[in-house]
Amino acid sequence: MDLVRGIAGKARNGLSRFRPSPEPDIFHLFFSGKHNEVAETFSTQSPDSWSVEDLHCVVASLATLGQDTSSVLARIPAPLTHEEFEAELLSQLRMEDAYSTNGLLSQPRYLHKSLLAAALGLRAGKGSFVETGTYTGESLFKISSLFEHLWTVEASPVLHEAARQLFTGKGITNITQSLGDSRELLANLDSETLNGAVVFLDAHYSTGITSREYGSCPVIEEIHIILDRSSEALIVVDDLRTMNGKDGYPTLKDLFSALPNTLRVQVAFDQLIIGKAWLQDLV
């Protein structure tokens, strides 16, 4: 037990890059679209102890307001190296194992889910990462040094521009951004690209400042587009707990019924994993 506590304590310390600060609640201000309050909080309080997630929200709010983001960008650390990535992933998986009692379809308490998708892709030998739902760009930015090229698409012009300023301001050149429908991006990627990619499907409307211009949750269509063009793509579908048939979302039955019965699938950490990758390969 002491050993588990010791490992978990180290893991908790390693999560500072991902854990939001309790005060001020920058994330919820940002997600509610209260960008002026975010900017005011940043200008009046010391951000030295803020999490990196907070700082990414500040960048997005300042970009939305047309204000200079350089002082905040300077505080955001570079993308994860392979060594940092492995350490962060192992820390978070250990935290989930030691402290979480959540069910299969519950939001993980400690695990940053795009890191799990990236890890599955790397273990499967994928050299590219495709993401639907850019949001602030934080998740893709952190893993940008791990893949040769990354693609992302966002339906919200505001979030698209905020992520663009993040990538440009931090000198990231291997990310291709699109503004619009996730299905269009996927249809425009050739079979060779999809075969060599892990595809993280997260273009779901989540209230707040997120957009549903192209539908609340086009995940079944996204999967069909990928499978029609690729036999080797690794697909990770986020937020399975939200697939309840309400507000434009499919049910879990709808989702699983749409998949060919020859596919290799797993469910873990509120995600559906489709393709030749296994969770036990991560540890």
Total helices: the number is: 13
For the largest beta sheet, what order do the strands appear in spatially? 3-2-1-4-5-7-6
CA(first)-CA(last) distance: 20 Å
If you compute it from the alpha carbons, what radius of gyration comes out, rounded to the nearest whole angstrom?
18 Å
**H-E string:** HHHHHHHEHEHEHHEHEHEE
Number of extended strands: 7
* SSE class: alpha/beta
Mean pLDDT: 88
Q: How large a portion of the residues is in β-strands, by DSSP E?
A: 5-15%
Helical residue percent band: 40-55%
Q: Please tell me what the overall shape is.
A: globular
Q: Which segments are poorly predicted (pLDDT under 50) over 5 or more consecutive residues? A: 1-23
Largest sheet: 7 strands, mixed
